[in-house]
Write a structure and sequence with these properties.
Strand content: 15-25%
Mean pLDDT: 95
Largest sheet: 7 strands, mixed
Structural class: alpha/beta
CATH class of the largest domain: Alpha Beta
Low-confidence stretches: none
Shape: globular
Radius of gyration: 23 Å
Distance between the termini: 7 Å
CATH superfamily of the largest domain: Ribonuclease Z/Hydroxyacylglutathione hydrolase-like
Helix content: 25-40%
CATH architecture of the largest domain: 4-Layer Sandwich
CATH topology of the largest domain: Metallo-beta-lactamase, Chain A
Number of domains: 2
Number of strands: 22
Bound molecules: zinc ion
């Protein structure tokens, strides 16, 4: 049996692994490379002869785990694409949007290069189109959690809950070869324990070989108080000052998590019943997927959905799809809450709301997720006194706050907890999906705690698993 690491090596994007066992070639994840210095890898020819690839299994619907699927299908892959049913629906939202963005991006570059009379590093054609995404989506097959899925005669796969986002999975493969069975487990992205909405990460019974992510392999999440209490103070403060609360929003999971907290505060009368706009068609669509796949949610949330205190239907909540409705929000008098994408303010409707409101001292801008270097969100979060939005300079007079505690990723302690959950210690552990320092810190800690043969693989490295 051979395992090849085709991404998420020394980086947090481009998750992709190839398992060759029992005469089968199985790809685990097919993620987009998103760091600037690695974008060229998205354009490389497929890492395995397409006609020899038998199965593709996806851990979850984040772009860095499924974002290269439309390209793989456009390159000729005709086999099944397996993911949990909720992941299939979320991947539909994510990949269609990605196809549109790839097209827009290519058009934008074409114009700029024409204007500047030069050629860029990458072709001025989209990596894939919205149509390519549509074609790829037809090949998806939904599977249930904890059900055996036969991949040929000698390999069986299981999808276990990863507790990261709706539908996210830890993948377990049982391979029968040369008269014995060996077990491989891929963590995908592991979530935190005791989070709202999704269940806790599943502990897998046993594994011979484990591939574990290390996004937060060198960090512990800050304890700064309950997110719900912090949000309560922020909403009340903003209302007292007569301003609006703008929340740059990630469409999947984070948006629903913020709605969950707001709903609790409303139902418990801890905040005034303001209008709350979810001004993002993508987030509205994702919220509907949550409702259609309530079976993936934790027991507490399922009870809430059946009760009068519904987390996604509370007094004041408005789901906004059209541009006209979105523009109308700016004419509203009195305080309101506006959740709009994109989460890092790199595009989308949040930029229009910021344009109107960031210069007002009554406004509050609340960040609930990671802001990458070089984004408008990061500039604002870092306290810039002026920012450029749509080509205009704006003074930042709004109050800017952050809640750090809403990460969808396990921290160092929780990653160790997950790895130590196997009843028998794995024979080998491969640490991936982290910045080099994070992966090293987790590998060192696991070794110090007694794990044998912990390794940080390199890009395109192949290991033989005895
Ligand atoms: Zn993820």
């Amino acid at each position: 049996m051979r395992l090849t690491f085709l991404g998420a090596t020394g980086q947090v994007t481009g998750s992709r692994y190839l398992v060759e066992a029992a005469g089968r070639r199985i790809m685990i994840d097919c993620g987009l490379f998103q760091e600037r210095e690695y974008l060229a890898r998205n354009w490389e020819p497929p890492p395995v002869a397409i006609d020899q690839l038998d199965h593709v299994l996806l851990t979850h619907a984040h772009l860095d785990h499924c974002g290269l699927v439309p390209r793989l299908v456009a390159q000729g892959y005709r086999g099944p694409l397996l993911a949990t049913r909720a992941s299939v629906e979320l991947a539909g939202i994510v990949l269609r949007d990605s196809g549109h963005l790839q097209e827009e991006d290519a058009a934008f570059k074409r114009h700029r290069h024409q204007r500047e009379g030069r050629r860029g590093r990458f072709p001025e054609v989209p990596l894939y189109t919205a149509r390519d995404a549509e074609v790829a989506l037809e090949r998806f097959q939904g599977v249930g959690y904890d059900q055996p899925v036969a991949l040929g005669e000698h390999v069986t796969a299981w999808f276990h809950d990863a507790g990261h986002i709706l539908g996210s999975a830890v993948l377990e493969l049982h391979v029968r070869e040369d008269g014995r069975e060996r077990r491989l487990v891929f963590s995908g992205d592991i979530g935190q324990w005791n989070r709202p909405l999704v269940r806790d990460p599943a502990i897998v019974a046993s594994a011979d070989y484990v591939v574990v992510e290390s996004t937060y392999g060198d960090r512990r999440h800050l304890e700064e108080g309950e997110p719900e209490d912090i949000l309560c103070d922020i909403v009340n403060d903003t209302e007292a000052r007569g301003g609006n609360l703008l929340i740059p929003t990630f469409a999947i999971e984070r948006a629903q998590e913020v709605l969950y907290y707001l709903s609790r505060l409303v139902w418990q009368d801890r905040i005034p019943h303001l209008l709350v706009f979810l001004d993002s068609p993508m987030a509205v669509n994702a919220t509907e997927v949550f409702l259609r796949h309530a079976e993936c949610l934790d027991d507490e949330t399922q009870q809430l959905l059946r009760s009068a205190q519904h987390p996604f239907a509370f007094p004041g909540l408005r789901l906004v799809r059209t541009v006209e409705e979105s523009k109308a929000i700016n004419r509203i008098r009195g305080s309101c809450v506006i959740m709009a994408g994109s989460g890092m303010c790199t595009g989308g409707r949040i930029k229009h709301h910021l344009e109107h409101q960031i210069g007002r001292p009554q406004t509050t801008v609340l960040f609930v997720g990671y802001q990458a270097r070089g984004t408008l969100g990061r500039q604002i979060a870092d306290g810039a006194s002026e920012v450029r939005i749509h080509g205009q300079t704006h003074r930042v007079r709004a109050r800017v706050v952050q809640i750090h505690g809403l990460s969808a990723h396990a921290d160092q302690d929780e990653l160790c907890r997950w790895v130590h959950g196997f009843a028998r210690a794995p024979r080998r552990i491969f640490v991936t999906h982290g910045e080099p320092e994070s992966s090293q810190a987790l590998a060192d800690l696991l070794t110090a705690q007694g794990s044998q043969r912990v390794q940080i693989p390199e890009y395109q490295q192949t290991v033989v698993l005895e």
